[in-house]
């Protein structure tokens, strides 16, 4: 086996690492020399905090084409955003359609709501390429489900769903679309209005390159009438009133904000703006193409799914014949310093659909703008060495 090189982090679908340097500087500056709460202080420093958080909201609104920063809600992570949307939107008796590609942050709230308030949940079929079967969806839409909740890009296969076409189909049944964009935002251009979705949830700490503890829920105009407040508390506004304010974003943001996280997120999105989302998409597509082409040359590799690079993000799953995924992952880490993620990736139904559930899932490689073609060469060489040694 080769000597381990430097640490090579390829688990960006879990959380991105490294972060751009300005992210650390901004969070650090907040913690050391700003320090006051968001929306609760009229001092000079308090205004600086407010300006930064407002600017961060505007950056998210512009990046995702939301139409107004007021409809950008800051949360703790992708899971928190999805819980806010699902618990705030879903009512007893609702019918919800979803996919087998969902993360547990969708599957578990839906399962909970099924049991607690009596909703019904149906799963739409997918085709061989891991994309929603549009003719099956059409059939399911005849029952006029209230909500379609789907992931934009699978965190197991990287496959992107044809969201624009799906949105076109839901128009007649007036089904609301909640998009889990955890693996697409920050990796490719995402526009709420172009995609035609109603609500979008994403973390701030994956593709957006911000700190852990940040997340976003964004929605089109009018959705605030349909999404209830699910947590209540102080907002620093209308404090003499007993009810949670209806104004945005206060309706969904009780309690103190993660100010160091939001300072970091603001700097992270500025970094993405400077780099250009098209550059990031192109770079990550090239890395994906390079890895997939190389894997095809290693006979012991079993890809989880083959699909065209333009239909996926930089997330690739595979197994090595005769090795369980945990051992494959450990060998890459111990001998080559390559950090991947083995297992079910919190998406058990995705692995069921791929036929990889029984063997404990797959090993997943996932990229960020900081990965390089040299790193992919090294990864392929390392995989080939493991393959020839077992
Ligand atoms: C598709 C998808 N949805 C939701 C989540 C949950 O995001 P978070 O880890 O920020 O809670 C993840 C995280 O891996 C994900 O991959």
UniProtKB/TrEMBL annotation:
EC number(s) reported in the record: 2.8.1.7
Ranges where the record places region Disordered: 230-257
SUPFAM superfamilies found in the cross-reference section: PLP-dependent transferases (SSF53383)
Cofactors that this protein relies on: pyridoxal 5'-phosphate
Pfam family, one: Aminotran_5
InterPro entries, sorted: Aminotrans_V_dom, Cys_dSase-rel_unknwn_funct, Cysteine_dSase, PyrdxlP-dep_Trfase, PyrdxlP-dep_Trfase_major, PyrdxlP-dep_Trfase_small
Keyword presence, Transferase: yes
Enzyme class: transferase
Keywords: Pyridoxal phosphate, Transferase
Domain called Aminotransferase class V: residue spans: 9-378
Similarity-based family: Belongs to the class-V pyridoxal-phosphate-dependent aminotransferase family. Csd subfamily.
Protein name (database record): cysteine desulfurase
Organism for this UniProt entry: Thalassoglobus neptunius
Gene this protein is translated from: csd_1
């Amino acid at each position: 086996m080769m000597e381990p090189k430097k640490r090579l982090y390829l688990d960006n679908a879990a959380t991105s690492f490294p972060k751009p340097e300005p992210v650390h500087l901004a969070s650090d500056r907040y913690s050391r020399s700003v320090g006051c709460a968001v929306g609760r202080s009229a001092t000079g420093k308090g205004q600086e905090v407010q300006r930064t958080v407002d600017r961060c909201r505007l950056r998210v609104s512009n990046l995702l084409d939301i139409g107004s920063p007021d409809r950008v809600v800051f949360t703790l992570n992708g899971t928190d955003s999805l819980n806010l949307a699902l618990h705030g939107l879903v009512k007893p008796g609702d019918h919800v359609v979803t996919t087998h590609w969902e993360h547990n942050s969708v599957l578990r709230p839906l399962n909970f709501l099924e049991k607690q308030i009596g909703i019904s949940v149906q799963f739409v079929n997918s085709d061989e390429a891991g994309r929603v079967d549009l003719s099956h969806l059409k059939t399911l839409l005849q029952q006029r489900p209230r909500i379609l909740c789907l992931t934009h890009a699978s965190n197991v296969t990287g496959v992107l769903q044809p969201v624009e076409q799906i949105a076109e189909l839901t128009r007649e049944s007036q089904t609301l679309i909640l998009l889990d964009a955890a693996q697409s935002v920050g990796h490719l251009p995402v526009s709420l209005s172009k995609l035609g979705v109603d609500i979008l949830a994403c973390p701030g700490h994956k593709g957006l390159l911000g700190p852990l503890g940040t997340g976003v829920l964004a929605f089109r105009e009018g959705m605030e009438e349909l999404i209830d407040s699910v947590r209540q508390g102080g907002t620093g506004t209308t404090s003499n009133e007993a009810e949670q304010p209806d104004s945005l974003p206060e309706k969904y943001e009780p309690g103190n904000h993660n100010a160091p996280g939001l300072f970091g997120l603001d700097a992270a999105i500025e970094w993405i703006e400077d780099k250009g989302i098209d550059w990031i998409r192109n770079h990550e597509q090239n890395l994906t193409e390079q890895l997939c082409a190389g894997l095809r040359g290693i006979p012991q590799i079993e890809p989880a799914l083959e699909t065209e690079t333009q239909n996926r993000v930089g997330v690739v799953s595979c197994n090595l014949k005769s090795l369980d995924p945990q051992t494959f992952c450990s060998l890459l880490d111990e001998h080559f310093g390559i950090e991947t993620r083995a297992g079910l990736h919190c998406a058990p139904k995705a692995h069921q659909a791929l036929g990889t559930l029984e063997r404990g899932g797959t090993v997943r490689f996932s990229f960020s703008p900081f990965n390089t073609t040299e790193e992919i060469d090294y990864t392929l060489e390392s995989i080939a060495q493991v393959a020839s040694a077992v």
